[in-house]
Amino acid sequence: MNKSKHPILLYAIIGLLVLAIAIGPIYSAFAEPSFGEGYDDHPKIMDFSEIDDLGQGETELIYRFHPECGACVRIKGEVLDFAKTNEAGLKVYMTHVDYEENVPTGLYRGTPSLLVIENGQVVDEFVGSSEIPAFFNDVNDGTYEVQ
Predict the structure, then answer these.
(1) Structural domain for 19, as ranges
(2) Residues 68-78: what's their mean pLDDT?
(3) What dihedral do alpha carbons 74, 90, 33, 70 form, nearest 10°?
(4) How many domains does the chain divide into?
(5) For the residues of the chain, what is the DSSP string, one character each?
(6) Separation of CA 5 from chain center
(7) Closest CA to 94 of 27, 147, 45, 139
(8) 32/63 Cα distance (integer angstroms)
(9) In a shared domain, residues 24 and 8
(10) Is this structure's pTM higher than 0.85?
(11) CATH number of the domain residue 50 falls in
């Protein structure tokens, strides 16, 4: 009698393992990925075909980063602070370059980068750990005029 119980238990364990392995990719396909601490507190954009809907009547920003980019790490605090409290009230979308889809070729020069969007068009781009904070200062002191 004991011999018949072991194969059933073994099959049940194998079945649960297969189910657990299958659920991971299914969950990942439907769950929004985490961009990391702080970034997830802001709106995300991953599909650049949605860019046409941005900046309609006002300026909006897209911050492109990668968590292993040294320059991205250096300015992370400044980016997150600006996104929360900028003087112009600009909405800042976050995008992790590993998750981007439908990115137009030739438009973007690297990470970190900040895209200025007006009426669904990229009207300006700032790249690097010095250009982006300088842009933030210009917005906050009023020398960069936004819609």
Answers:
(1) 1-31
(2) 95
(3) -10
(4) 2
(5) -HHHHHHHHHHHHHHHHHHHHHHHHHHHHHSPPP--TTGGGS-B--BGGGGGGTTSSS-EEEEEE-TT-HHHHHHHHHHHHHHHH-TT--EEEEEEGGG-BSPPTTS---SSEEEEEETTEEEEEEEHHHHHHHHHHHHHHTSS---
(6) 50
(7) 45
(8) 18
(9) yes
(10) no
(11) 3.40.30.10
Q: Specify the long-range contacts of residues 84-91, CB closer than 8 Å, at least 24 apart.
A: 84/41, 86/136, 86/139, 86/140, 87/139, 87/140, 87/141, 87/142, 88/59, 88/139, 88/140, 88/146, 90/58, 90/59, 90/60, 90/61, 90/139, 90/146, 91/43, 91/58, 91/60, 91/61
- The tokens 């996104």 sit on which residue? 83
Task: Quick: pLDDT tens for 94-137.
Answer: 999 988 888 877 767 789 999 999 999 999 999 999 999 999 99
